[in-house]
Amino acid sequence: MSEAAWAILAENDRGGYTVPTAHLYPFQWNWDSAFVAIGFATYDIDRAYRELERLAEGQWDDGMIPHIIFHAPSDTYFPGPEVWGTRHRIPTSGITQPPVFGMALRQVHEAASAAGRPDAVERTRKLFQNALRSHRWWLRARDPEGTGLVSILHPWESGSDNSPAWDEALKRVPTSTKTTIRRKDTGHVDAAMRPRDEDYQRFIHLVDVYRECEWDPARQWEAAPFKIADVQMTGILARSTADLLILAQSLSSPEERGELERMHQVLTEGLARRWRQDLSRFVSRDLVSHRDVEAPTQACFIPLVALTLDDQQRRAIRSEIKRWLDGMVVGVPSTAPFSPAFEPKRYWRGPVWAVVNWLISDGLRMNGSEDLAREIEQGTVQAIERAGFCEYFDPTTGEGLGGGTFSWTAAAYLVLSQ
Ligand code: 9YW
Question: ipTM score of the complex?
Answer without folding.
Answer: 0.98
